[in-house]
Amino acid sequence: MGSRFSRRVHLLAVRGSRIPLNSGAAEQRSVSPINGPGNRNKEAVWRRRILQFSSLLVVFLLFFNSSAGSSAEQDPTVHLASGSVRGKFGGTFAVFQGIPYAAPPVGALRWKEPQPVATWTGVRDATKPGSACVQDVAGVGHFMAPLAAAYGAPFEIQPVSSSEDCLYLNVWLPEWPSKTGRLPVMVWLHGGSNRVGNGAETTYNGTSLVSHGVIVVTINYRLGVMGFFSHRELTNESAHHSSGNYGLLDQIAALLWVKQNIASFGGDPGNVTLFGESAGSIDAMTLITSPLSNGLFRRVIAESGPAFGLGPARTIAEAQKVGDAVAMATGGTSTSALENLRKLPAVEVVKLDERVVKAQFRGFPTSAAITEGWFLPQSPERAFALGQIQKVDLLVGLNGREVSAFRVGAAAAAKTAGKPENSGGPGEVIETMAAAVHPLYGSWTDVALSVYIAKMIVHRDAAIDQASNDMLLACPVGAEAALTTAAGQHAFIYRFDRSVPGQGEATLGAFHSIEIPYVFNAFQDHSWTWLPTSETDLKLSRTIETYWTNFAKNGDPNSPGLATWPFWTYASEPYLEFNQNGDAIPQQSFSPIFCHLSPDRLKQQLSIEPAQKEQPKKRSN
């Protein structure tokens, strides 16, 4: 192409030198009294200079225009079944943002399983992220601000622009075009209680991870009432007689998109690792138990979010009771409650749902998965116990003081409101805790609670954090590893105990979500610049990224130069501790007191058919 361009410029320049500037003017000069021989020589010199300038100008303009077109042509472009997309370079890597993986779930598609994306002609711009899914304008800001305040740092909440038209994903590549063949793929599910967050948050910039030789995909999925609303009319109109798991079905659709399209980006559709944090972790572990996810991923990395052990699984009957109450509060002229709801703007539906749930179903997990017979034929814990899960390897873990973040956040919210939120008395809190942990602790539940309560009386906040960590996270995480191993796969457990020195360290410790900037090397992102990190944290980030990407490549996090991370066995319960010094230290005896992780006991405990569960209690204010 370069030689053709040079020949074209040369021909135009030569032809330009042969064209008279103005033949009429030349004729006039021949009869002019001032057009003597000396003047004609000067004019000839100026003509040559003007012609030379004109030729150079033509060359410059051609070069400029060709360079502009060449740059556009050289931008990374991928041809998909739905149409072509053009991304952008960022140094040595490439990124494509805002690629639709399903049709916008608007209008009649609100509360429908995701539909195929419409094809387009031409080349679609993929240099900017798509809209976040409907959520509070503060996004994750309400969670982050109290954490920064604990460290004495200001935190500016950046408003989130959200829309129902939000089913987009982003692809980060280590190079373009790929020179190393099919690369391992890591698909990220963001956290946020399935109510806030999005895959395009700058914290989830994949640049650092892809430098380890993987492709990173981050996705949006429907949240809150737009993603987890169940109603009888929705169930009846569904071909699967199902409703409520739309956000999780979005995740399935995104994984199907990856399977069908990632090879065009240089990725291996047969080597996909699903990884997520908090709600994203819970969702990833839940997807392991869904028959719809068969063949869509080979591994899961689950950070601070087990699929069971946090409370009883929701049934479709329970979820529909909430949906009925929301529909009754809607009003409208149609005899169809669903039609009335679909006519409302999304922001009004969100407000209505929040008002009804707060008044009548306080404490009911309205943004959690629903056991409805299609996406989830049975509860996740029962699927794990019966071995009816996808055959995938697992890397799973938790942070040292997960609950501290929620405790500090609740105190900040109460201070803002001027009064503490009515969360029930101590007796109700203990009853709720007992119901949540009983499936795993069984007959040891009362004994375990008594021991932890005694510690809380003496040590207060730190003991509350420890009890919650042990019973609601560590024991379920261990159970997931034990049952994954019993199903014939490998599981690796970690515990993140690095707390960042500073004003908030004593209050927060290794709080919920603190591992995220280590996974993405995101310490310079707005969400984390308030954290007074040091070289210790940068070193630990490099270590964690290497373990995570090793696991994504071949199912084994180990490689030369790293501390050996043994896979789970019941005999020694090994795990890897990321300690206060930023080192990775192999440890044993993971399970907390009274948490028994024998696979046989877990199978017996968790496979029992649940009795008729108590319906969500309605409360009057």
In short:
The protein has helices at 2-17, 23-30, 37-74, 141-150, 207-210, 224-228, 232-237, 246-261, 279-288, 316-328, 337-343, 346-360, 380-386, 404-417, 426-441, 445-459, 461-486, 505-508, 516-520, 535-554, 599-606; strands at residues 77-79, 84-86, 88-90, 93-100, 123-125, 132-133, 162-163, 168-173, 183-189, 215-219, 267-277, 299-303, 314-315, 370-371, 393-399, 491-496, 575-578, 584-587.
Characterization of this structure:
The chain is an alpha/beta fold and 621 residues long. The chain is built from 21 helices and 18 strands. The chain has one domain (87-606): Alpha/Beta hydrolase fold, catalytic domain (Rossmann fold). α13 packs across α21 (599-606) and α15 (426-441) packs parallel to α17 (461-486). The chain is globular, with a radius of gyration of 31 Å.
Portion of residues in helices? Answer: 40-55%
Main beta-sheet annotation: 11 strands, mixed
Instruction: Quickly give the CATH architecture.
Output: 3-Layer(aba) Sandwich
Span of the ends, CA to CA = 75 Å
Count of alpha and pi helical runs: 21
What is the CATH superfamily classification?
A: Alpha/Beta hydrolase fold, catalytic domain
The total tally of domains equals: 1
Structural class based on helices, strands and sheet pairing? alpha/beta
> Based on DSSP secondary structure assignment, what is the total number of beta strands?
18
